[in-house]
Amino acid sequence: MERELKEEVSFEGDLGSLKLVGTLVMDDKLVDRAHFGLVYAGLVDKDVKPAECSIISGRMVEIDQIIKEPFERYEDWSMALIPHLREIYRKLF
Fold first, then answer.
1. What is the pLDDT of residues 36-91, one digit of tens each?
2. Cβ atoms of 23 and 68 closer than 8 Å
3. pLDDT at position 84, please?
4. Is there a contact between 78 and 39 (Cβ–Cβ < 8 Å)?
5. Residues 6+ apart with CB under 8 A from 19
6. Does the pLDDT value for residue 21 go beyond 80?
7. How far apart are CA 38 and CA 24, in angstroms?
8. In this structure, what CATH number is given to the domain that contains residue 48?
9. What residue numbers bound the domain in which 82 lies?
């Protein structure tokens, strides 16, 4: 998990420990039927930025701001998790 995370984002400071908080299974699209998601959460103490060139933009925002934004701007798997962000955050503590 840490290797995958470091490929896609760069962050300063301590990543801390990652915690498995759930799973994600979707079957809406053919590609989704071939994947099984493990949902991890972690706390960072500094800014996180995209590191992979295919990620056009990214920034850290409060959970309430993500929930208020139109979900359609995110990929399917992210859209499925957004309504559960508060619960995922609570599982860290």
1. 888 988 877 777 888 888 877 777 788 888 888 876 778 888 888 999 999 988 88
2. no
3. 92
4. no
5. 40, 41, 42, 91, 92
6. yes
7. 6
8. 3.90.79.10
9. 2-90
- Give the whole-angstrom CA distance, residue 4 versus residue 86: 23
pLDDT for res 9: 83
Cα–Cα distance measured from residue 89 to residue 85, given in angstroms and rounded to the nearest whole number: 6
Q: In this structure, what token pair is assigned to residue 26? A: 């979707």
- Measured from the Cβ of residue 31, the count of other Cβ atoms closer than 10 Å reads 9
pLDDT value for 60 = 75
Domain count along the chain: 1
Residue closest to 79 by CA, chosen among 29, 9, 18, 16? 29
